[in-house]
Design a protein that fits this description.
The protein has about 325 residues and is of the alpha/beta class. It has 2 domains: about 35 residues; about 220 residues, 3-Layer(aba) Sandwich (Rossmann fold). Helices cover about 55% and strands about 10% of the residues. It has 9 helices and 7 strands, in the order αβαβαααββαβαβαβα. Strand 6, helix 8 and strand 7 form a beta-alpha-beta unit. It is elongated. It starts with a helix and ends with a helix.
Length: about 325
């Protein structure tokens, strides 16, 4: 009997402890749930507060951006006004020929700009990619000519003096070049429009040869230009050959710099490492520009007459 009583007592005590444990566990779980809910609500409240602050900051920044946009628009209008005033005041009677050596980028916007601002365009020569084969004597289309010398000479004489021969005609017909003759005037300024992608560096094959030949013409104004997004910086190479340059001719500041160089100014302008200034900080006076242009024209006319008389190229 005593053994049964003790066994029953032990089971009873164990049951009590199990019940207490279960109760404690349930109580702890209930308290934990309330704790988690409380923490979750606090986090939600904090997030909501932060969202309100972020919305206020976003509204402030949007307002600031609108203010900056308005200022930029105003500055753009002011710049346009100043540039238009400069172009009207500092007109140039220079005659320009454009040689586009780049085969990756278009310069139609530049041509439109020059025409819009009454810069006299005499001739436009666009070099095609296949022309490199002509210069490297890798074509059988011109057996009667000495290449590359004859090809460079004939294009130089055409661009500057409007002297056209059979080779120009053949190069055009076979689509090695594209030409557009706008007037028969002697060009006192030559623009070399270069720049290419990394996969198409033709500077030594094309540009260098043109520049070396053009520099033999006394008093000729030669300017090298490229666009700001050109992968290869041709203006750095133009500068090394002694040319005035504009490496951002697609931008407003670049266009102003170009006009100043056409008027007889000097310098290397733009945004790349070869540039000394973004744009000119002083401008050539009308009197100095006209005197410089007069000297160039007289010299070029004399050289043109000598070429015709002696049939000897510079």
């Amino acid at each position: 009997m005593n053994g049964v009583s003790i066994k029953y007592f032990v089971i009873t005590i164990a049951s009590i402890f199990v019940a207490l444990g279960v109760g404690i566990l349930i109580g702890f779980s209930l308290n934990s749930e309330k704790f988690v809910q409380k923490q979750f609500q606090q986090q939600l409240s904090l997030i909501d507060k932060n969202l309100v602050e972020l919305k206020k900051e976003n509204d402030r920044l949007v307002k600031k951006i609108d203010e900056y946009k308005s200022q930029i628009n105003q500055l753009g209008k002011i710049n346009d006004t100043l540039v238009n005033a400069y172009l009207k005041t500092c007109k140039s009677n220079a005659v320009v020929s454009l040689i586009v050596t780049s085969t990756d980028y278009s310069y139609n916007d530049l041509i439109d700009f020059l025409r819009k601002n009454q810069i006299k365009l005499a001739r436009i020569v666009k070099i095609k990619r296949a022309f490199v084969d002509v210069l490297n004597n890798k074509t059988s289309d011109f057996p009667e000519y000495k290449l590359p010398e004859d090809a460079i000479n004939t294009l130089m004489l055409y661009a500057v003096f409007d002297m056209k021969d059979d080779l120009i005609t053949k190069l055009t017909e076979k689509r090695y070049i594209e030409i557009n003759r706008l007037s028969g005037e002697i060009a006192d300024t030559i623009l070399i429009a270069g720049g290419n992608t990394l996969q198409n560096d033709t500077f030594n094959a094309v540009d260098r040869r043109f520049i070396e030949k053009l520099k033999n013409i006394n008093d000729l104004n030669i300017v090298g230009v490229e666009q700001s997004y050109s992968e290869l910086n041709y203006c750095e190479k133009y500068k090394s050959m002694g040319l005035d340059t504009v490496d951002n001719v697609d931008d407003l500041t670049g266009k102003v710099s170009l006009i100043e160089l056409i008027r007889g100014g000097n310098g290397n302008y733009g945004t790349k490492k070869e540039a000394n200034l973004l744009m000119p900080n002083t401008f050539t006076s009308i009197e100095v520009s006209e005197n410089s242009l007069k000297k160039r024209r007289e010299s070029l006319l004399e050289q043109y007459q000598n070429i015709q008389a002696t049939n000897v190229m510079p």
